[in-house]
C-alpha cells in the first residue's frame, strides 16, 4: 500500500506542476531543447525538477485505460491482439522465473548462460503487467512482481561481449513491466520494490548508460531506450537527460536525410568520420537516400530493431512532455517508409545494397505509426500497409511486445 500511496503523491505533484509548465511554454518559456531538423518542431528543454508522469514508460496510464475499454468492448484489432498475448507462454498463470546471478552472453557459437531466460522472464513480467491492467485480475500483478523479485534477489551483472545488448533488451522490458505495476497496484511491498530498484541501478544501468559508440547503431539505440525507461521508473532526472542527449546524437547518425550532406552523420564518440570509414560502417553502401539506415545493407531486421527503439524513446519522452518526435519527424517518417516499401516487395535498385536486400523486418512499426500517422496525420502509406498486414503485431522475444494492443490507434 505504501508504494501506491507514493504513486498517488507523485500524481498529485504532477497535477500541480504540469499546468505551470504549460503556462510557461505558452508564454515562450522553456528555451531550445536541441537542434531541430528543417520542417520539424524543436522540443523545449524539460525542467529537471518536473515530476515524471507515471505510468509513463512507453505506455501511459490513459493509453492503458483505452486499451482496456477496447478489449472490454470486443473491438478490433485490440481484441485479437489481446487474445494473442493471453495465449502466449508469457501469460501462463503458472509461469516460473529462472533467474541467474550472472548472465553470460558470448557473441559467437559458445552457449550462453541465462540470456534467453532473462529476456523471456522480463517479457513475461511485462505481459503479466499488461494483463493486470486490462483484466483487473490481481493474480497477474502478483505474478509480475513475483518474476521481478525472483531476479532482483539473485542477479549481480552481465558478462561476455554481448553484455551491453543483452542488458538493454532485458532492461527495456523490466522498466515497462515495473512502471505498469508500481502505479496501478498496491501489493508490491516496499522491500520488494527497493530490491528491484537496486537491481536496475547496480546490474543494468551501468552496463547501458554510456552506450556503445563503436558498435552497430541498433546496440546504441536500444541501450538508450533501456536507459530512458529505467530513468523514468527510478525518477532519475540526470539519467533521463543523458538518454535524451543520446537520442539526439545517435538517431541522426543512424537514419540518413539528404540535409545531412553527401555523407551520413558520424556517431558521437566513435571516431568514424572519413568517407571510407563511413562506407565500411554502413556495410559497403556509398550512395545515400532519405530513410536509409546504417544497417539497411546488413539486413532489415537490425534496422527494424532501431526503428522500434527510436520510437520507444520518442514515445516515452512524449509522455514526459519532451517532443523528441518533433526533432526527428522527417527522418523517422522517411526511415519507416523506406524500409516498409522494400519489405513489402519493391525491387531494390542497383545502388541500394548492390540490388539485394534482406527483408526480415519485425513487429516494430506500431508505436511510430501511431504518432506520425495517428497524432500528426502524416501520410505513411507504405508503413500503414505493412503494419496492417502484420496485425496483430506480437513479440520478437527480445524487447518488443504486444504493440498492436498498446499503440494501434492509441493517440
TrEMBL record:
SUPFAM superfamilies in alphabetical order: Chondroitin AC/alginate lyase
Top-rank lineage group of the source organism: Bacteria
An MF annotation (GO) of this entry: lyase activity
Keywords for this protein: Lyase, Signal
Cross-referenced PROSITE patterns: PROKAR_LIPOPROTEIN (PS51257)
Domain Alginate lyase residue range list: 120-251
Transmembrane segments: none
One Gene Ontology cellular component: periplasmic space
The name this protein goes by in its record: Alginate lyase domain-containing protein
Lineage: Bacteria, Bacillati, Actinomycetota, Actinomycetes, Kitasatosporales
